[in-house]
Amino acid sequence: MDSAEQLQQIYLAGFELQTYDRFPKCVGVIRDGCVALLAPGVDGLQILGTPGWRMGEVIGVLTEIQGRKVFQAKTEIVEATAEQLAALERFREDLKQILRGGGEKGTLSGGSPRVMSS
């Protein structure tokens, strides 16, 4: 599947698409507070880095501090709730399934699609 087809499947699965001035070759995908950056690769789009939690204009990565799971973006730290962790897991799995070419309608948890730019 080429990048355009992948973006269409991502959009139809309820992810928002967003561009970022700081990452001109990437597209951000957002759903349920989760965010990932996608970059073009030899086999279509690929996840750049690790999906995380949207914290304003940055991605909070899931980490552990003193035995607690948190999302951290530089010095900002947000406690990771069970609901957020479940949403992040669904987000990762749905996105991976689409990028592998398995995002057929009705197989993903989804939501309503939107397109944004920053």
- Total number of strands: 8
Radius of gyration: 14 Å
Total of helices: 2
What composes the largest sheet? 8 strands, mixed
Shape: globular
Low-confidence stretches: 111-118
- How large a portion of the residues is in β-strands, by DSSP E? over 45%
Q: What order do the helices and strands follow?
A: HEEEEEEEHE
How far apart the termini lie comes to 27 Å
Secondary structure class reads alpha+beta
Query: Mean of residue pLDDT?
Result: 89
- Read across the widest sheet, the strand sequence of neighbours is 7-6-5-4-3-2-1-8
Q: What's this entry about, in short?
A:
This protein has 118 residues and is α+β, with helices and mostly antiparallel strands. It has helices spanning 3-12, 82-99, and strands at 16-20, 23-31, 34-41, 44-55, 58-65, 68-73, 76-79, 114-117. The protein has one domain (3-103).
Describe the structure.
The chain contains two helices and eight strands. The protein is of the alpha+beta class and 118 residues long. The protein has one domain (3-103). The protein is globular. The two termini are 27 Å apart.
Helices, strands, pairings?
Elements (H helix, E strand, L loop, with lengths): L2 H10 L3 E5 L2 E9 L2 E8 L2 E12 L2 E8 L2 E6 L2 E4 L2 H18 L14 E4 L1
Parallel strand pairs: 1-8
Antiparallel strand pairs: 1-2, 2-3, 3-4, 4-5, 5-6, 6-7
